[in-house]
Amino acid sequence: MTGDKPVVYVVDDDPSVLRALERLLRSADLGLETFTSALDFLNFQHPEAPGCLILDVKMPGVSGLELQERMARQGILFPIIFITGHGTVPLSVQAMKAGAVDFLMKPFDPKDLLEIVFKALDKDRQAKWEQRELKRLRERLKTLTPREAQVFRSVVAGMLNKQIAYDLGTAEKTIKVHRARIMEKMGAKSLAELVRFAEKLGIGSPSS
Amino acid sequence: MTGDKPVVYVVDDDPSVLRALERLLRSADLGLETFTSALDFLNFQHPEAPGCLILDVKMPGVSGLELQERMARQGILFPIIFITGHGTVPLSVQAMKAGAVDFLMKPFDPKDLLEIVFKALDKDRQAKWEQRELKRLRERLKTLTPREAQVFRSVVAGMLNKQIAYDLGTAEKTIKVHRARIMEKMGAKSLAELVRFAEKLGIGSPSS
DNA sequence: GCCGCCGTTGGACCAAAGTCCAATATCTTT
DNA sequence: AAAGATATTGGACTTTGGTCCAACGGCGGC
Fold it and tell me: Strand D: which residues have Cβ below 7 Å from it?
């Protein structure tokens, strides 16, 4: 499943650029989807496979930078490689600050682009894998009852069953039962693992 | 101690720019150190206080970008704000990829710069705090004997004393002793805390 | 009203971990 | 050789945590 063929998405309003990039990327045995506008891309159903985006900065309608922003807001997270004919320093800085992988000026060396694309795909593979892990954990967390979640927080904070029981005004026995259910529901084989899960879920440090 | 007055370091070969920035930054009640060359900055003993660097891209001798690279190699980690009169897109992209906070073109709005500086200082305050935490942990880790370190890894991997003993070919009793010493030396008040320490130290995941 | 989930608890044990005190064998360093 | 750090183990308990089985009251839904 993590071994899906990677897909490169290209968004550019200039068909000739699209064709050129298509030739280049096909030669590297990469999946490819092309779009002539930012909105077309947004309406497209992205598969699970790792991918990256090659994006023209300047396009009629929604610009590349706007698309980047909208994607971030919608949680569509793909590494973005910008290409442009008339880029400026402020534009490139904005794009990079917003997390772009690179920002290339035309004309560029096709070899450079391919190298960047491969790096971006690796990055997305990694990111997607972590996203899936986190999603699984969150789903498991949701199966905890309110009380269990409460005990969960106390357990990973390092409290003893006895202390937790005192805090919640219940018997230590009750905590043991909750604790067992927590380990089971979260799929943790040891306390160490449970703590690591909690860390990934951001339990113990943030506002909470 | 974390409440030290922040210091802004400015490196620019043009004395008039230095003076202008000095006026601006002094007005904001910020500590200030100016340098007319990258090497001067490298030879300077940086205090512990949070700080950031305002750096001219183009300078005779060692350029701003080279300084950024050298700092990274030497582990001198300050947020860097580049300013330049004649920047290009590739230069700004390189700087941003290397971790720069921002890349400003002259002329720029002094208010913008101040805002960026304050953000950079906050960032460094946070980074410095985490660095200190990590340093303390590493020092504690170093006080562990080889055997203890070995047991440490097994413990945070979630193994039972019994299993660890079997792996190492020793008695379970021995592991208990090691374990107690580990908790004491690492200053962990609970297993949960110990696991968190191990996470920060990168034990359990990396090459190892 | 009956069923299922949630939170609760008890009893009876077992297993794992921690605590004191004490002791031995190596190895390195002084 | 003596001192010190390291690694090891035993005995004797105490505390904690986990497991099985069983049970009860409250609450929402069918």
Answer: A 160-162, 172-173, 176-177, 179-180, 183, 191; B 145-148, 165, 168, 170-171, 173-174, 177-178
Report, at the CATH architecture level, how domain A143-200 is classified: Orthogonal Bundle (1.10)
How far apart (Å, rounded) are the C-alpha atoms in residues A25 and A81? Answer: 14
C1'-nearest nucleotide to the CA of B175: D8
| pTM, two decimal places | 0.89
Fold held by B7-133: Rossmann fold (3.40.50)
CATH 1.10.10.10 boundaries in chain A? 143-200
Q: Contact at 8 Å (CB) between A28 and A114?
A: yes
For residue B90, the distance in angstroms to the closest alpha carbon of chain A comes to: 8
- Out of 3.20.20.80, 3.40.50.2300, 3.40.190.10, 3.40.50.800, which CATH number does the structure's domain A7-136 have? 3.40.50.2300
Would you state the torsion angle of the CA atoms of residues B162, B167, B172, B178, taken in this order, to the nearest 10 degrees? -110
Predicted confidence (pLDDT) per residue in A38-75, tens digit: 999 999 988 889 999 999 999 999 999 999 999 999 99
Reported as a single tens digit per residue, the pLDDT across A9-21 is 999 999 999 999 9
Name the minimum distance, in Å, from the CA of A190 to any CA of chain B: 5
Question: What would the two tokens of residue B22 be?
Answer: 């000095």
Task: Kindly state whether A159 is in contact with chain B, defined as any CB-CB distance less than 8 angstroms.
Answer: yes
Domain(s) of CATH 3.40.50.2300: residues in chain B? 7-133
CB-nearest partner of A190 from B102, B158, B190: B158
